[in-house]
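Field reference: sequence -> structure
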Amino acid sequence: ISGSAATPITTTAVTVAGGATLSTINTAAQTINLVGGALNLGAGTGTTNLGLDLGTGGAADLYTTSASATTANTIRLNLNGLSGFGAGTYTVLSAAGGLSGATYTLGTLSGSLTGVTLNVVSSPTEVQINAVASSGDFYWLGSGGTSWAGITGVNTNFATDLAGTQGTITANGTPGTGSSVIFSANGQTGSTLTTT
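Structure field:
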C-alpha cells in the first residue's frame, strides 16, 4: 500500500486476517479503489480491526472493488471523525458481493463524532455507517471522563434517563444541537463538573 493524506492510497488487493489490524486513519477521508482486486477480511481466528476516517458530507475511507469480497467472522470498525463530520451515510466498504459473510461492529471512536447516533448497516454489496443527528434529553454521567465527547468503547458520558441508564453511541448517541443536557443523573460516576 502506498499513499498519504496528501496523495491517494493505492493498491490492487487488501487482505486483513482475523486478529489483524489495518488503519488508514491519516486525517483524510480517501477511497482505496482496488479496481477488480481482492478484498479479503476476517479469515482465520480473532476479530479483524479496520481504522477509518469519516469526513464531511458522507466522505469516508472507502475500500471498493468491482469483484466480490471474501469476509468472515467479526470486523470491528474503529472510527475517527474529521473536522466537519456530521449526520449522514458513510460507505466504508463496497464490492460486487460477499460482504455479508462477516458481522460488523463499532470499535474505538475518536475525533469529532459528537452530536450523532452511529449504527453499522451492511448488505452483500456495502457496509455503511449511518450517523443520525441526536435529539432529546441527555443526562450527564461522566463515566468516560470529563469531556463532552468522552466515549469508552461505545459507552458515552451521558445517560438516557434520570435513573442513570448508560447511554451508548449506538442507542442514543451524544448531545447535538437539538438536545437538552441535564447535569445530573442517578449513578453519576464522573468527577465534579465545574463550569466557568
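Note: The first strand starts at residue 14 and ends at 16.
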